[in-house]
Each structure stands twice: as structure tokens, then as C-alpha cells.
């Protein structure tokens, strides 16, 4: 296993990124660049090595290559989400078609960056996803949103059911924050995609995140009680207040 941690500063406040890619040159490049920009880095050359790293540490974000031998990036992303890991995941791949990006989102990724790319672009996307993942939404409506037996806290960005936290991906949190900030108001796909920061993928990204979020909050995602589609207009969140 290849652990490429930056040992210059083990301060717990430094955000830790796990880079998973079978190209050692790219791992070294990202290790150096991200370390110089304030991150602590661990590296893995495969999904197997990544799982060994994840046994003893929880990164703040994962940068993951899609086209690795063996278990690929999409399969690993899906598996991590099924295991309840809600860490932000940015996929890297030479496949740049919209369908490939959608496949990444459906697997549970938070962002998708095509190769080749400038390290600075990855840095900006990484910082953006970490901000969206960790910061509370700025809102005048600070009342908790009830969704049946669940409650969404817009200050702490937590979805809670019977005192247990329901783990959401960064994209799911971003979508729920946008909808919860304007309950009972129809929001167009264009408005939502701008708010959740997925302009490059487009409005299809909203549909993917809506499908994923419904699986979390609805008893029957095909017959939604809270997150409704308004044909030709967009989506609306209708919370319960009792």
C-alpha cells in the first residue's frame, strides 16, 4: 500500500484528502500540489489499497480515478455510499461525455473532472465541495424542516430520524438545503443547478440528485410525499409541520 501523507504538519485542523489513482505520476503531482496548498494527502493505487487506508482513517475528501483495473472508481464510489460513507468524492476520468458524468453522480459522486485537467481546477472544485459539505446554508428561515418522522436542521445541515443521523452525500445535502430554504416554492431545474454548483453537467444532474434524495426521505420514492415534481416547472419540497 502506498501512503503519501504530508508529514510536515499533522495538525488535526488540516483537511485530509485521499487520492486514488493507478498512475503514480499523477498521484505524486497531486500530492505535491495539494500539500503546497494546505492539504494533507494519502495515496492509493487501487480500490483494494484505498480500502486498507480507509480502515484506519477517515479523509475529509476523496479524489478518485474512474478507470482503474479491478474494482473501478464507479464501483468503489457506489460501495462506499452503500457503506454509509458520506465523504465528498470527486471523480477523475478521461471519459468526458455527459452520460459518463451522470453515471458518476448516480453512483454517489459529488463532482466529476475530466482528464487532462489543471491541478488548480481540481483545487478549486475540492474547496468548493468541502465548503458546500461543511458550511450551514445562509437562510432567513432557520426553522427545522419536518419530513414525516425525519427532521432536517438547516443550521447544522443534518437529516435526523429518531435521534440518528442519516448520512447524505454532498450533492444530496446541497439539494435539500436549497429546497428547505424555500419550502412549498417551485424551483426550476435551472435555479437548482446554479445553487448546487453543477452547471457543467446541467439540469440532468438535478434529476439524479432528486432521485437519490427521494430514496432517503420518502417511504415510496415513486409516490413521493414531500419532494414533488411539477411538470414543466421543476421541483418543490412540501414539508410536514406536525
TrEMBL record:
Domain named Response regulatory: residues: 16-130
- Which is one GO molecular function term here? transcription cis-regulatory region binding
Q: Whereabouts does the entry annotate DNA binding, in residue ranges?
A: 142-239
The record's InterPro entries line, in alphabetical order, gives: CheY-like_superfamily, OmpR/PhoB-type_DNA-bd, Sig_transdc_resp-reg_receiver, WalR-like, WH-like_DNA-bd_sf
Q: Which CDD domains match?
A: REC_OmpR, trans_reg_C
- Domain OmpR/PhoB-type residue range list: 142-239
This protein's source sits in the domain of life called: Bacteria
Keywords of the record, alphabetical order, are: DNA-binding, Phosphoprotein, Transcription, Transcription regulation, Two-component regulatory system
CC annotations in GO: cytosol; protein-DNA complex
- Tell me the Gene Ontology biological-process terms attached to this UniProt entry: regulation of DNA-templated transcription
Could you tell me which SMART domains the record lists for this protein? Answer: REC (SM00448), Trans_reg_C (SM00862)
Gene3D superfamilies per UniProt: 3.40.50.2300, 6.10.250.690, Winged helix-like DNA-binding domain superfamily/Winged helix DNA-binding domain
Residues that the record marks as modified (4-aspartylphosphate) are 65
Q: What is this protein called?
A: Chemotaxis protein CheY
**What organism does the record attribute this protein to?**
Commensalibacter intestini
Source lineage: Bacteria, Pseudomonadati, Pseudomonadota, Alphaproteobacteria, Acetobacterales
Amino acid at each position: 500500500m502506498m501512503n503519501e501523507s504530508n508529514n510536515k504538519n499533522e495538525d488535526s485542523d488540516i483537511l485530509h484528502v485521499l487520492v486514488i489513482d493507478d498512475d503514480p505520476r499523477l498521484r505524486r503531482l497531486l500530492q505535491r500540489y495539494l500539500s503546497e496548498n494546505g492539504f494533507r494527502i494519502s495515496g492509493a493505487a487501487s480500490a483494494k489499497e484505498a480500502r486498507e487506508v480507509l480502515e484506519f482513517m477517515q479523509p475529509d475528501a476523496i479524489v478518485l480515478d474512474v478507470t482503474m483495473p479491478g474494482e473501478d472508481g464507479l464501483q468503489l464510489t457506489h460501495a462506499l455510499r452503500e457503506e454509509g460513507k458520506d465523504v465528498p468524492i470527486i471523480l477523475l476520468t478521461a471519459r468526458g461525455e455527459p452520460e459518463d458524468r451522470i453515471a458518476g453522480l448516480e453512483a454517489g459522486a459529488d463532482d466529476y473532472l475530466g482528464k487532462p485537467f489543471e491541478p488548480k481546477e481540481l483545487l478549486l472544485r475540492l474547496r468548493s465541495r468541502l465548503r458546500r459539505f461543511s458550511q450551514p446554508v445562509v437562510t432567513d428561515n432557520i426553522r427545522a424542516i419536518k419530513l414525516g418522522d425525519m427532521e432536517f436542521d438547516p443550521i447544522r445541515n443534518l437529516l435526523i430520524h429518531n435521534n440518528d443521523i442519516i448520512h447524505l452525500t454532498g450533492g444530496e445535502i446541497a439539494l435539500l438545503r436549497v429546497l428547505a430554504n424555500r419550502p412549498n416554492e417551485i424551483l426550476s431545474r435551472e435555479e437548482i443547478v446554479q445553487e448546487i454548483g453543477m452547471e457543467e453537467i446541467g439540469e440532468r444532474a438535478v434529476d439524479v440528485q432528486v432521485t437519490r434524495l427521494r430514496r432517503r426521505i420518502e417511504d415510496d420514492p415513486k409516490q413521493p410525499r414531500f419532494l414533488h415534481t411539477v411538470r414543466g416547472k421543476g421541483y418543490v419540497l412540501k414539508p410536514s409541520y406536525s
